[in-house]
Design goal:
94 residues, alpha+beta, Arc Repressor Mutant, subunit A
Length: 94
C-alpha cells in the first residue's frame, strides 16, 4: 500500500549530478556526506543563482509554490549543515 501522493515529475533544466563538494584538506573517504536531490539543486539554482521569485521558480519547475518553498528550505538546511559541520555535498537523482 502506497502512502501519500504520487511525486510529480519536476522540470529540471540543468543536470548537476556529476558535481560534488568537500572541505579542503580532508580525504573524501573519511567525510560524512550530505545528499542533495536534483530538485533541491534546481531550486537553489533558480532562486539563489538566477534570483527568481519563488512563484516563478515553482512555475519553471512545474510544481506548486508551497512545494517549492519546502524544497528550497530543505536545500538551504542541508547546505548549511554541510558547511558548518565539514560534510561533503553530493547531488543525486532521488
Amino acid at each position: 500500500m502506497q502512502s501519500g501522493r504520487k511525486k510529480l515529475t519536476r522540470n529540471i533544466e540543468k543536470d548537476h549530478t556529476k558535481v560534488c563538494f568537500k572541505p579542503c584538506g580532508v580525504r573524501g573517504a573519511s567525510l560524512e556526506k550530505m545528499v542533495l536531490g536534483i530538485d533541491e539543486m534546481e531550486a537553489i539554482r533558480l532562486s539563489d543563482f538566477e534570483g527568481l521569485y519563488q512563484q516563478e521558480c515553482a512555475n519553471r519547475m512545474g510544481i506548486s509554490r508551497t512545494t517549492f518553498s519546502r524544497l528550497i528550505e530543505s536545500a538551504h538546511r542541508k547546505i548549511s549543515d554541510a558547511l558548518l559541520h565539514n560534510k561533503a555535498i553530493s547531488i543525486t537523482k532521488v
